[in-house]
Design a protein that fits this description.
The chain contains 8 helices and no strands. With 192 residues, the protein is mainly alpha-helical. Helix 1 runs parallel beside helix 8, helix 2 packs parallel to helix 4 (88-100) and helix 3 (59-80) packs antiparallel against helix 4. The radius of gyration is 20 Å and the shape is elongated.
Amino acid sequence: MTKAPDRLREIARSLNRRRWQPTPAEVELGSTFFHRVEELEEEPQPGFPRGADHGGRLHTENLVVLARIVTMARELLSVWKDRLPGSPMVELVEQYVSGAEPLLPHAERLVTAWSGVTFPEPTADEIAYEAKRLNVPSEEGESNLRYWKAVRWEEEAEHHPESLWDELSPLWGYLVAVRSTMMAAVTGDTDY
């Protein structure tokens, strides 16, 4: 079997040169994947605070979402693999799953550590100051304080050593490349 990054380049090249023109069924698989990913990424994960802009997401939460995406992708493969034998789109979903698998033990470790942490409650004065500083209701000020306490927890070396993020960064980059290729196949926008 061709090494995954090499095969990803082959698939992307064949798509770009229009040697692979995804069938309607392949586009359906890719569209289903992205629709479900979007649902999982937008669904608030219980127990994780949000920053004031409501877009702030903790690294730990991102790993939890990734684990759920992998589970969903495996379910898709169980349905689509036999329907599309030899399909590059099936290969892309498989590559996404196999590319994400090395991240899953870190997700499990961090979630275990997260479940055991208790942060000090923000005081009424801290909440009032934060709400005034951000010009938001006190609930949002409190939420923002909780978020930044969690960010500081994540930055502690025992939870997220710098070397770990250096090690995981190429894996995230690979997942982005797989998703970009899948999106190009789904949309037909291959002039990248």
